[in-house]
Design brief:
With about 800 residues, the chain is an alpha/beta fold. The protein is about 55% helix and about 15% strand. It contains 23 helices and 15 strands. α20 runs antiparallel to α21. The chain is elongated and about 195 Å long. The structure holds adenosine-5'-diphosphate and magnesium ion.
């Protein structure tokens, strides 16, 4: 027999008898084959088949006839026992009819040493081997289980130290790595053959007592005697250990008691035996059939308890005990059929190696200690004896914290690396410092811009979160300062909400702004200060006046620049000024072109108007001068207040000159009036175009950037205010012209102020109102000096 065979090894043992049925049972000389010759049952067969003989041939591992207990052990069990000591599970089972010699084979005679069976011999072998294998430390435990009528009985429960459990508390269990075991079954450590045999006999006694008290036959129960062996190497400090078990199974009688008309207890026993043996056969059949995935082990306690002892990684041996008499030939045939089926079951024996976690931990601890010692020696050699490899103490951590702080503020140039643990602690301190810095910056930002820190609740703010907050804050801050309103004002709140409604286009603008470095608080301040130096038409009328110094052409240039009060934002739609520029060269280019043409025409007309005004005023002054001369001549010649010319008539030349001057005045005045009408008309065209451009831009901006109505109005007004610069410039021009006449000064000043006030109320101002109404804001022709 091979110790690690891949098939269940099957033997047949024939109980010695004086009436051996030679003609029915033939054992061939090869020692492995048994032939059965059997007449068919005459009662069930047709007459034609009466007396017909049939033969069956069974080839097994060995046919044990008239073989001593010693020889049986040597052939059947010894290799399995040795395999168990090597770490393989082993199972030896005796199967057969009641009285066929199963118990004799398994346990043998308890009175005769020579006739002792497999179990005592196996125990002897185990302890002899334990003595021999000095390189391993073995521990042996025993258990003895009986299964009677599907009830689990611990045959060693009477021993001291055994848990006194009722059979109900015993359950067949299965655990990964541990395999099948019986919960509640007592395990008894044994250190010698004698101790082990004591337990065996104790169990046998309990079995017999049980049979008497319960009035049952020992052949009606299955008994499993298990030797649990663990071995650890004495030479290697290995966490590995081997755990195996040897199951020695004495099965209940296989005869079909149900057919013999059993009653009462006998019938019940027969039913259970039939059931368990029937399922044992089914399990064996399933195990023998490679195509079957499922083996019904759990259907009875017996098969479940033997699950890993029948197939799997186990060395399994079956001894089929049969009678030699003719009277038992049917049961003999049945037993041999079961044996031949068992032969088909394949096994895959493997050593049951386990890892002892406690030993593994000890081993690793020892290894760590050894490495620390080695490092310590190394550090001593390289003059670094102060280094320790223990977890850093509070004092050491405080020192590292202080070092990092010094390093960050520049007072320490470098931090010396001492150990990996120290490097990790330094990094941890850096991380902490960064986090603290972030919190500080965040707090400063909030304080500086008087913002509600929306992320205050996030105690564990990450760098990313901070950056987001930073960007958001910067946008809001610039907007708030640009509009000159508090961040908490409804307008600003609305602005914030509109910021969220940004589109792809706005992101393009953002990227432009980011390139200008407006995302950082520093650049933001720069932007702020820049915006303060620029004239603010709404807030600072004085500055506005300065801007009016520029000519109308430069106003066009101004128009194309972002107004100073427009937000320069990193996280919001582009400012209206920027968007307006885009619009003028894009969608609104046509109307913008017309506007420019109209403006050019207006400029030309204004220039002409200025010339004509100057001409008219010059003529007027000449008229005045001529008139004064004529008056003077009249007084001089007439004396005493009487009016006489030298010739009795006033100087005709002067009078003629005066007449011509007046005619010229009237002609120039008419031309001036025409030009003024043209200027008005051109102004109207410009205003119309501007209005259209703005309204179209407004719609476009709304659609493109989803701005709220309120924001649009604010920005529109600002743009309007800029546009208004052109108008103001005209007013200023008129003022300059009229200022030449001192009497017109008060009037002109008052009018100019009114105009400015109107401009400062630009929020309700529209070009249409300005040009169509006849109210105080209506533009008038420049006043012409009256001609008397
Ligand atoms: P089983 O356990 O199968 O019911 P037993 O082992 O109890 O049968 O055997 C019944 C009787 O037959 C016992 O008295 C036993 O001593 C005897 N016997 C069985 N086999 C042998 C054998 N090989 N040599 C001598 N006696 C045997
Ligand atoms: Mg028996």
């Amino acid at each position: 027999m091979k110790a690690h065979s891949s098939e269940v090894t099957v033997f047949v043992r024939i109980r010695p008898t004086a009436n051996f049925a030679k003609d029915l049972i033939e054992c061939l000389p090869d020692g492995q084959t048994v032939n059965i010759y059997h007449k068919k049952d005459c009662r069930k067969l047709h007459d034609s088949k009466k007396g017909q003989r049939s033969s069956w041939s069974f080839r097994l591992q060995g046919v044990l006839q008239d073989v001593s207990q010693e020889e049986v052990y040597a052939q059947v069990c010894q290799r399995v026992v040795l395999g168990t000591l090597d770490g393989y599970n082993g199972t030896v089972m005796c199967f057969g009819q009641t009285g066929a010699g199963k118990t004799y084979t398994m346990t043998g005679s308890t009175e005769s040493y020579k006739q002792r069976g497999i179990i005592p011999r196996a125990l002897q072998e185990v302890f002899q081997e334990v003595e021999k294998r000095t390189e391993h430390a073995f521990s042996v435990h025993l258990s003895y289980l009986e299964i009677y009528n599907e009830t689990l009985v611990d045959l060693l429960s009477s021993l001291q130290g055994s848990p006194h459990l009722s059979p109900r508390d015993m359950v067949v269990m299965e655990e990964p790595g541990r395999g099948v075991f019986i919960r509640g079954l007592s395990l008894h450590p044994v250190h010698s053959e004698e101790e082990a045999l004591n337990l065996l006999f104790e169990g046998e006694m309990n079995r017999i007592i049980g049979c008497h008290t319960l009035n049952r036959n020992s052949s009606r129960s299955h008994c499993i005697f298990t030797v649990h062996i663990e071995s650890r190497s004495r030479t290697l400090s290995d966490a590995k250990y081997i755990a195996s078990k040897l199951n020695l199974v004495d099965l209940a009688g296989s005869e079909r008691l149900g057919k013999t008309g059993s009653e009462g207890q006998m019938l019940k026993e027969a039913m259970y035996i039939n059931k368990s043996l029937s399922f044992l056969e089914q399990a064996i059949l399933a195990l023998g059939d490679r195509r079957r995935d499922h083996v019904p082990f759990r259907q009875t306690k017996l098969t479940h308890a033997l699950k890993d002892s029948l197939g799997g990684n186990c060395n399994t041996v079956l001894v089929a005990n049969i009678y030699g008499e003719a009277a038992q030939i049917k049961e003999t045939l049945s037993t041999l059929r079961f044996a031949s089926r068992m032969k088909c079951v394949r096994t895959d024996p493997a050593v049951n190696e386990h890892m002892d976690p406690a030993i593994q931990i000890k081993k690793l601890q020892k290894e760590v200690q050894r490495l620390k010692e080695e490092l310590s020696i190394y550090n001593t050699l390289v003059n670094r004896p102060s280094i320790t490899y223990e977890p850093l103490s509070e004092a050491q951590l405080a020192e590292i914290h202080s070092q990092v702080q010094s390093y960050l503020n520049g007072s320490l140039k470098e931090i010396s690396i001492i150990s990996i643990r120290q490097v990790q602690a330094v990094f941890a301190q850096f991380k902490l410092a960064v986090h603290e810095q972030e919190q500080k910056v965040k707090a400063q930002l909030c304080q500086t811009y008087n913002l509600v820190n929306r992320d205050q609740t996030a105690n564990t703010a990450t760098i990313k979160t901070l950056k987001e907050l930073d960007t958001r804050s910067s946008t809001e801050d610039v907007e708030a300062s640009s509009f000159g309103v508090a961040a908490q004002s409804p307008k600003n709140t609305q602005r914030s909400s509109s910021t969220k409604a940004k589109t792809k286009k706005s992101r393009e603008k953002q990227s432009q702004n980011k390139r200008q470095g407006e995302g950082s608080p520093v650049s933001r301040k720069r932007v702020e200060s820049a915006s303060k130096t620029k004239p603010n038409p709404v807030q600072t009328p004085e500055k506005e006046q300065e801007s009016q110094e520029a000519d109308t052409e430069s106003q066009d240039t101004q128009e194309s620049q972002p107004p100073a009060n427009e937000p320069l934002q990193t996280d919001s739609p582009p400012s209206k000024a920027e968007a307006f520029e885009d619009f003028k060269i894009g969608q609104g280019s046509h109307i913008n072109c017309i506007l420019k043409e109209n403006k050019a025409m207006l400029l030309e007309r204004r220039s002409l108007l200025r010339q004509l005004t100057e001409e008219v005023n010059t003529v007027k002054r000449e008229i005045d001068c001529t008139t004064a001369t004529i008056q003077q001549q009249k007084y001089m010649t007439g004396g005493q207040g009487q009016y006489f010319s030298m010739e009795g008539e006033p100087d005709a030349t002067l009078l003629l000159q005066l007449r011509e001057l007046k005619a010229h005045y009237r002609q120039r005045y008419k031309a001036l009036r025409d030009i003024k009408a043209e200027v008005n008309y051109c102004q109207h065209l410009v205003d119309q175009c501007r209005l259209r451009l703005l309204s179209e831009f407004e719609n476009w901006y709304k659609k493109s950037f989803l701005l709220t109505e309120e924001e649009l109005n604010v920005n529109l007004d600002k743009t309007e205010a800029q546009e208004e610069d052109g108008q103001q410039c005209l007013e200023r021009l008129q003022f300059e012209l009229l200022a030449e006449d001192p009497s017109a000064e008060s009037f002109c000043n008052a009018r100019y102020r009114t105009q400015k006030r109107r401009n400062s109320r630009a929020l309700s101002f529209t070009p249409v109102q300005r040009n169509t109404s006849a109210g105080p804001g209506q533009r008038r022709l420049p006043p012409i000096l009256p001609v008397t």
